[in-house]
Design brief:
alpha+beta, Thrombin, subunit H, six-stranded antiparallel beta sheet, 16 strands
């Protein structure tokens, strides 16, 4: 879609010789346009909910909420959070919020924090078998490991689900042990030993902990999120990689129109480049992306006509909804 958007933008600009937009400038404008539309989705979803509650929204093909929800859910993902360690390397009850450096995505909004509150067993792998955890010194059946439990490689920060359980080995959903001697932790997936953490303000933590009735527990954990992107979970015994899984809305990946330069000096679209990235929005949003990018182009080349044209197209499409 990104090449189609760029060709249309250039065609509009070249119609009256308004100027040329370089690939670098186009990529900057594309990033901002996608971000604008992404953030509009949440306001559109809220509007659709209000229309549904007011009984002015239809059903089936006239359901205004469904397409917006599907577009938003494309950005809904989940990851185990990376714990913050003490200087000696011990895990704490603090975790880094999702970011590119920790889990590969920056979060827009955290939707849910899920806690694995019970460690079934720990140990060290003694041999390598694909898609298995093998520990000759363990007895996983006696330890109470069951299919569905979470297996965490504490050395690589990878995780998998137990598929089958034997005395000294566990069949895994993913091959997370590739070196003998890796340390592992098994977390119980039992509903009585897992819980959703409730988000509270930092100022309420002391008050909640001071009361026997509201003090956080493994059954009713809580968490806070500060401005530095640190999630703190209570009670403090919930710590270490694999104990916290966050479901969150991530930001769209930055779009990039990649190219090769021809002998004439003209750039030619080349999506085989390693940094190529298309828009992550649905195809029906193409006209909106074009309109918004043209607005940025008009400001850049100081052409009010381009800005007004783009605004007019955007307003026309909004009135047709």
């Amino acid at each position: 879609m990104i090449n189609s958007v760029r060709n249309t933008v250039l065609a509009v600009l070249n119609k009256n010789n308004y100027g040329y937009i370089s690939p670098a400038d186009f990529n900057l404008y594309a990033k901002q346009a996608q971000m604008e539309l992404f953030e509009e989705y949440f306001a559109m979803y809220n509007k659709a909910i209000n229309m549904e509650n007011a009984r002015v929204s239809g059903t089936d093909y006239a359901n205004m909420k469904r397409p917006v929800a599907e577009a938003i859910e494309h950005f809904l993902t989940h990851d185990f959070l990376v714990p913050i360690l003490t200087p000696s390397g011990a895990p704490t009850n603090q975790f880094y919020a999702p970011s590119v450096t920790t889990v590969g995505n920056d979060f827009f909004m955290i939707n849910r924090v899920f806690c694995y509150t019970s460690v079934t067993t720990t140990g060290t792998t003694t041999s390598l078998v694909a898609n298995e955890l093998v520990d000759a010194a363990a007895n996983f059946i006696a330890s109470g490991v069951t299919p569905g439990d979470l297996i965490v490689n504490k050395d690589t920060y990878e995780s998998a689900i137990a598929i089958g359980v034997n005395a000294t080995s566990i069949d895994l959903s993913d091959d997370i042990f590739t070196v003998i001697g890796h340390n592992y932790t098994v977390y119980s997936s039992s509903s009585s030993k897992t819980a959703d953490a409730e988000k509270v303000s930092i100022g309420k933590v002391s008050m909640l902990k001071a009361s026997l009735l509201t003090s956080p527990s493994n059954v009713f954990p809580i968490y806070t999120l500060n401005n530095s992107g640190v999630i703190t979970v209570y009670p403090e015994n919930i710590s270490g990689y694999g104990s916290i899984n966050a479901t969150y809305f991530r930001y769209p990946k930055e779009p990039k129109w990649t190219y090769v330069t021809l002998s004439s000096g003209e750039p030619m679209f080349d999506q085989s480049q390693p940094d190529y990235m298309d828009f992550e929005l649905p195809l029906e949003e193409e006209y909106k992306l074009i309109a918004k990018i043209l607005q940025y182009c008009g400001v850049s080349i100081r052409e009010g006509d381009v800005v007004q044209y783009a605004l007019g197209q955007e307003q026309m499409q909004s009135n047709n909804k």
